[in-house]
Amino acid sequence: MRQYRPRMEGKNLAERVKELAKIQDEAGYMAVWEKTADGFILKEQNCAIYRVACRFQEACQFEIELFRRLLDADITRVEHQVKGERYCTYQVRPRR
Fold it and tell me: In the chain, how many domains are there?
């Protein structure tokens, strides 16, 4: 996480989501993002750790926690490739 913090500094939530999508894309997740009425959607079209995640779901929990900390936002997974869905999709909302 430390290596990503500098990439988030001084950015608003939209800019952080965009930067996180870029980070995940660089790692092979084919990540895209979009603005929604109440926040953002971050979608990973590929899971770079799919085989590990199928066996150890803790990896997926770590990812959500990493996103929460980097974005300083509320994160909810709404699709999960490990559960047979097409993407891993996260709803990102500003913290209240």
Answer: 1
Q: What sign does the dihedral 90-30-37-5 (CA atoms) show?
A: positive
What tokens does 84 get?
């047979």
**Helix (H) or strand (E) run with residue 7 in it:** helix 5-8
At residue 29, the pLDDT reads 96
d(CA 21, CA 25): 6
* Percent of the chain's residues with pLDDT above 70: 100
Grouping H, G, I as helix, E, B as strand and the rest as coil, residue 72 is coil
Tell me the pTM: 0.92
Domain that holds residue 37: 5-94
